[in-house]
Amino acid sequence: MKYLAASALLFQATVLAGPIIEARQRQDFAVFTGVSSFRGQGCEGATVTYDEINQVATVIYPNYGVVIPQGPREESCSTTLQVRFPVGECTSGTAIGRATGTVNVPVGVTAFFSTRDYAIQPTIGTITDVSPNGQWTGPRSEDYVLQDNIGYTLTPPNAQNSLVNFTVFGDLSLQPQNGPVGSLSNRQFVFDIRTQIPC
Ligand SMILES: *[C@@H]1O[C@H](CO)[C@@H](O)[C@H](O)[C@H]1NC(C)=O
């Protein structure tokens, strides 16, 4: 009897604690604002969706790909996602970027996903990114994942500087461009800012 009563109380306490913790997170944590922009031919038709707490952005690129012999043989795209940080508070975190797509190259053809790096604006803090380029020498035929780690420490001094743009660059190409056949695509990019630590 005693055990039952205790577990019923615990259950009630857990139910009550749930929404309170969630409300606090929404207030004090960095979130996507929903403002995004795309530059470059590869970005044509790109769309972005967010999870319900606005900390995971999923970008779909219907046209970010290169193919020989018909072309396009080279395409770039820079994707900007805007994040709102708590004003006057230091936020430290590691954002995870994940680019996925497919590569198909025969012997003698190499596929490149190059100039991958991140920029933040305005520059109100420090950022260190590890964003590996992709390079596949044929014969290769696979789905790939490139994972990025973007460490940052930011303290927005005022509301105007609390909206921070994260821009990721990238360029797809195949070599040699007069090769027989081959393709490389980047279909999806997921940017996850859930790992945040007050500092
Ligand atoms: C961030 O990106 C948005 C959308 O492209 C743009 O309107 C805004 O001016 C940018 N902000 C900064 C600080 O670059």
Number of domains: 1
- Percent helix, as a range, is 10-25%
Query: Radius of gyration over alpha carbons?
Result: 21 Å
Strand content: over 45%
Largest sheet: 9 strands, antiparallel
Helix/strand order, N-terminal first = HEEEEEEEEEEEEEEEEE
Number of distinct helices: 1
Bound molecules: 2-acetamido-2-deoxy-beta-D-glucopyranose
Overall pLDDT confidence? 89
Based on CA inertia axes, which overall geometry fits?
elongated
Low-confidence stretches: 1-26
Tell me the total number of β-strands: 17
Distance between the termini: 46 Å
Q: Return the structural class.
A: mainly beta
What does this protein look like?
- InterPro entries: DUF4360 (IPR025649).
- Residues 1-17 form the signal peptide.
- Pfam families: DUF4360.
- The protein has 1 helix and 17 strands.
- The chain has one helix spanning 2-28, and strands at 31-39, 47-50, 56-60, 65-68, 74-76, 78-84, 91-105, 110-114, 118-121, 125-130, 134-137, 140-154, 163-168, 171-175, 182-185, 188-192, 196-198.
- It is mainly β and 199 residues long.
- It is 14% helix and 52% strand.
- The strands form 3 sheets. Strands 2, 3, 4, 7, 10, 12, 15, 16 and 17 form a 9-stranded antiparallel beta sheet that branches. Strands 1-6-13-9 form a 4-stranded antiparallel beta sheet, with no helix packed on it. It has a 4-stranded antiparallel beta sheet with strand order 5-14-8-11, with no helix packed on it.
- The longest helix has 27 residues, at 2-28.
- The chain has one domain.
- A hairpin with a 5-residue loop joins strand 2 and strand 3 (56-60).
- Mean pLDDT is 89; it is low at 1-26.
- The termini are far apart.
- Bound molecules: 2-acetamido-2-deoxy-beta-D-glucopyranose (NAG).
- 2-acetamido-2-deoxy-beta-D-glucopyranose binds at residues 35, 37, 80, 82, 121-122, 165.
